[in-house]
Design brief:
The protein has about 150 residues and is α/β, with parallel strands linked by helices. It has helices at about 30-40, 90-100, 110-130, and strands at about 1-5, 10, 45-50, 75, 80-85, 105, 145-150. The chain contains three helices and seven strands, in the order ββαβββαβαβ. The strands form two sheets. It has a five-stranded mixed sheet with strand order 5-4-6-3-7, covered by helices on one side. The longest helix has 20 residues, at about 110-130. It is globular.
């Protein structure tokens, strides 16, 4: 089975590799990331999206903008299921691993120092869990949008 990104097909184990989506503004990085998130979901691979511009909540809507999309939990200051604070990084990391869920962490509106604190605490907790073998060893972190927790 492959991850189908349109003209690009990646093997399913690509979720355990590190790669980046790089392009100039307007070239489709977010769209490609969203397709990748959809493919992860189809293959039961949880993912985390750090969203500094508050657009990824749209994953919960189908392409027509009306029907249900992906069942992701949204953390954030606005448009969120769960209100977000800078101190929640560890708690979110534990919850997504234990519950095997995908989520969007919208940092839009947070001061940059709070965003860095949240992401550092999140990443540190995931690393600690991996070292204690509470989460898959093939976890990959990236400073961009989509993170796979498989």
């Amino acid at each position: 089975m492959d991850l189908n990104l349109g003209s690009i097909h990646l093997p399913l184990n690509a979720a355990t590799k590190t790669f980046a989506i790089l392009a100039k503004r307007g070239a489709g990085k977010s769209y490609t990331g969203a397709v990748l998130a959809e493919e992860f979901h189809k293959n039961n691979i949880p993912f985390v999206v750090f969203d500094p511009i508050d657009v990824w909540r749209g994953l919960r809507l189908a392409h027509n903008g009306k029907d249900k999309g992906l069942p992701v939990v949204v953390f954030g200051l606005e448009h969120a299921d769960i209100p977000l604070t800078r101190e929640m990084g560890r708690e979110i990391a534990q919850a997504i691993v234990q519950e095997h869920v995908s989520c969007v962490i919208s940092t839009f509106g947070m001061p940059k120092v709070a965003q860095r604190h949240l992401i550092a605490e999140f990443a540190e907790e995931l690393l600690n869990m991996a070292l204690q073998e509470q989460t898959p060893a093939n976890l990959r972190l990236a400073p961009t949008d989509v993170l796979s927790t498989r």
